Here is the input.
Amino acid sequence: MKRVSADVRRKMRARFKIKQKANGRPRLSVHRSGQHMYAQLIDDLQGVTLVAASTLDQDIRKENKNGATMKAAEAVGKLIGERAKKANIDEVVFDRGSFLYHGRVKALADAARQAGLKF
Here is the structure.
């Protein structure tokens, strides 16, 4: 039997719980790299991305020189919340992936909540 690393196990555990509680709501998937933050709203039933935002967007890049800061993560959370409102999406399920709910991931989630997303 092949051994699975701790981060892959953490990711699978989080996704399993999310799929149980989703009830047809889109999934707010967050990815944190060393230099950037990415967020997507994904409809798992159809398998399509509804809305996306990242620190690579021109609006956020102008404000933040570095995409790996708390300020940049908050900007991505605010932007994904605004774009979700334009797409008439109010309720989502938060998918932190294999990342701990701490630091930049938490900052993104809090900013998305302040922008009007419910999760």
Observations:
- The mean pLDDT is 92.
- Helices lie at 6-21, 58-63, 70-86, 104-114.
- Residues 23 and 55 are 30 Å apart (CA to CA).
